[in-house]
Amino acid sequence: MKKYKHYIVILILLLSTFFAILQTATAEKSDVVLEFFYTNGCHGCDQTKPIINETENDFKGRITVTRILVIKDKTIENYSYFHDYYGFKYVPAVVIYNQTNRTNYVKFNYSQINKKDIEDTLLLFGAEPKKTTILVEYYYNGTCGTCIDILENVIRKAEQSYVGNNSVQFFEKDIENPDVHQEYLNYLERYGQLQGYPFVIVKNETSETPIPEDDLTVNNINNTINAYYAGTKPISFSKKPESSIDIIYIIPFVIIAIIILIVAVTLSLKNRKK
User: Fold this and answer.
1) 68: domain range?
2) Which of 76, 67, 11, 6 is nearest to 39 (CA)?
3) Are residues 109 and 142 in the same domain?
4) Splitting the chain (274 residues) into consecutive groups of 10 residues, what average pLDDT does each group show?
5) The CATH number of the domain where 110 resides is what?
6) Neighbours of 184 (CB within 10 A)
7) 185 and 108: one domain?
8) 3-class state of residue 85 by DSSP
9) How far apart are alpha carbons 221 and 156 in whole angstroms?
10) What is the DSSP letter of 86?
11) Which of 172, 183, 176, 180 is nearest to 150 (CA)?
């Protein structure tokens, strides 16, 4: 046993080192903090909040976002932390650091805050964004004038809002392509509100939302994408049933038929009395 004692000691040391390194790596990825300083009634803060919300969603589970209300009063701890510790003078402001090394931080004053720089800084501190891809698929017929009009004035305009954003991808799918045509038929069978081309499918790894022709607007597409970003339920689009229009036209004929029936029955009863 003595013969193997030093091997056992070496093995224990190696295992201890391995678990220490693993714990440190995990801490670096899970302990990244983003502090957002704001105050109520601040226009710049209101403009920055969507950036913070989107970043929090993009890095969900990878970072901790702390929203700190700043009140200009030196007796209040938050103001001292904001003004004295970080040296900020104005809101909004953002600070990013890793709890494993609290003294190493990056700060953004109100004029420096933008989504790209914040995300790049989070990556430097070891946070990785969750890999969520939102697909926007436009199904159309290349020979259809209405389809081309919607493609140019709705789909491509919506796409412009996401240039450089790799998490949102647009696809133009001409149903004349045999492979695409089968996808098109599958969607028609799956969703009753889709009466034919053109239409859009917005989807991610877990769910999808159909947008029929009558609801194809830039706002509807963007709102659906934003709902997927926020993790909320997207609005459900449904085509108005055409049968309701048919009933309006049928009602007068039904009334006339009932009147004729009543007159016929009345005349029949009079004839029997005679």
Assistant:
1) 31-124
2) 67
3) no
4) 50 50 45 95 93 88 93 80 93 95 93 92 86 88 96 95 87 93 94 93 90 95 89 72 50 81 75 64
5) 3.40.30.10
6) 24
7) no
8) helix
9) 11
10) S
11) 172
Structure tokens at 266: 């009345």
Six-digit token string for 88: 């900020």
Which structure tokens are listed for 146? Answer: 């209405």
Largest CA distance in the chain: 129
H helices present in the chain, as ranges: 2-30, 43-58, 77-80, 115-124, 145-150, 156-160, 178-190, 218-230, 243-273
φ, ψ for residue 205, nearest 5 deg: -70, -20
65 strand-pairing partners: 34
Q: Residue 214, CB half-sphere, CA atoms under 13 Å: how many?
A: 10
pLDDT tens digits for 169-179? 999 999 999 88
How far, in Å, CA of 265 to CA of 274, rounded? Answer: 15
Classify the phi-psi angles of 42: left when phi > 0, otherwise alpha if psi is within -120 to 50, otherwise beta: beta
Closest CA to 89 of 111, 122, 106, 117: 111
Read off the amino acid at residue 243: S
Residues 40 and 116 in one domain: yes
